[in-house]
Amino acid sequence: MSLALKEPVRPAGDAGRTGGGPTASPRGGPRLSPVLLLVPALALMVGVFAYPLAEAMWRSVSDPVLGGQNYEWFASGAANWAVLGRTLWIALLSAAICLGMAYPYAYLMVLSGPRVRAALVVIVLIPFWTSLMIRSFAWIILLQDSGIINGILGFLGLGPFELIRNTTGVLIGMVQVLLPFMVLPLYAAMSNVDLRLLQASSSLGARPFVTFTRIFMPLALPGVVSGSLLVFIQALGFYITPALLGSPSELLISQAIYLQVNGQLQWGHGSVLGVILLVATLALLAVLALLMKKAKRAAGDEGGLL
Amino acid sequence: MRHSVPTRSILWAYTGLVAFVLIAPTAVVIPLSFTDKASLNFPPSGWSLRWYGNFFSDPAWTSAFGNSVLIAVVVAVAATATGTAASVGLQRWTRRRAAKSTQALLLAPIVVPSIILAIGVYAIFLRLHLLGTLTGFVLAHTVLAVPFVVVSVTAALAGYDGRLTTAASSLGAGRWTAFRRVMLPLIMPGVVSGALFAFVTSFDEVVLSIFIKSPYLETLPVKMYASVTRDTDPTIAAAATMIMLLTTAIIAVGLLSIRRRKRVQ
């Protein structure tokens, strides 16, 4: 990763560590441990992050009474399994569609000159400019029954299609939000491919198609894997987009959590769903971290912070 | 690698389509905010400023906007201060393994789905009577913003030569002076971009905010969320356009200040 933190050159000993060696001025005061600088941030993380998460997890076994009844509720409800299956399926579809859209895009970024590449980078970053909320709202306008997309399709003699309040709407919204997270790792991996290998392949008589599928694609594979995992993981926890573009009868797991906790005050049920979502997310993140470590080691990069 | 002309044109056309999908939502909101009809049809048939008038004459919208700005400013200050201190502490901490795991904890809010954090925060704020309070919003948003500050300040610190601090102290500067006069100016681009990220994170936050709002205190995205699910009124497009303008202005100012600083150096 490019953010690898390289240790700056330091003199022997730790005089440079706190900048307050024995020769420092008295104004420096007593020497404090650098750990003290971490105290405010850590207090915040423990109080408003770790504690609430622990509370949410704890409620899955303690609400309304101590025991495993909430897990039994989850296991015995067909609707729960349907929600989990639908969430995984939508996340998988989002990752697949993002990959299909982002691969040629990133490939063109690698092929083109600096000017076109800069424009393509800006276009990928534009979605970050606009909040998730606003983008979901914009899709409602574009995709509604009387919207411009249905207007164009009608002009071509197609439709009208129902494009929102169903899985199609959710997928369109999610793919738009997640595309940058696929394009950027793909581009990073593709631009690391040594283009001389492609030249060598062509000069040895391989047709462009063969060079592309046999040389380029395997070399760009790490980007495909990390981009897909990144998109999949994020898609699992989406709330706003499915809530606005999806159907209330086809809930995803985050919507089910909201409904249980906020609508039915079933904290135990909501917490079980939360635990499942958290475990799935963390497990996949561990896989991603492992793959990145492997790739990094293969590239001969020493891992720093980040 | 050279591709044939048809391959290239297909690639270009496809990329154009993807670019369209990326841009379309952003491009649709701005014109819609100037429509003259009380409908969300696009493209609008006529133009007016009535939805902006509506926004500024409705106290529900203006107070939500004011709350959002106030909370985001406080969050930016709080997250930048704690995040920068933490990044400097992490870099100076000689026990690398401990520093690494501490950093992982500080970055964790980015990867945990916010709905899970939201129900936990909701439970605790309910108990502590923090729902619908400025304190509650600032605490919750700051937790989400700190990781972004840590990432950008840590990246800036990676390019900072620790010997400069040593030189400053050997010339008689106290620790605070050495930080303020030597280190801080050099890592300023990272600090500024961290502050911008923090502001935007708070200003855009919806999921946690939906849980911790009250009928008496809500932020702009929460009000917009309610508006999307309830009414079909272009006022929300006017609100969205103004959020976009504000975000763009803040980022532009930040980028300009970083560039000017670089040029001075």
Automatic annotation (TrEMBL), chain B:
Belongs to the binding-protein-dependent transport system permease family. Keywords: Cell inner membrane, Cell membrane, Membrane, Transmembrane, Transmembrane helix, Transport. Residues 65-254 form the ABC transmembrane type-1 domain. The keyword Amino-acid biosynthesis does not apply. It holds the Pfam family BPD_transp_1. The chain crosses the membrane at residues 12-34, 69-90, 102-125, 137-160, 181-200, 236-258. It is found in: Cell inner membrane; Cell membrane. The lineage of its organism: Bacteria, Bacillati, Actinomycetota, Actinomycetes, Micrococcales. Its main location: membrane. It comes from Arthrobacter ginkgonis. This is ABC transporter permease. It is a multi-pass membrane protein. InterPro entries: MetI-like (IPR000515), MetI-like_sf (IPR035906).
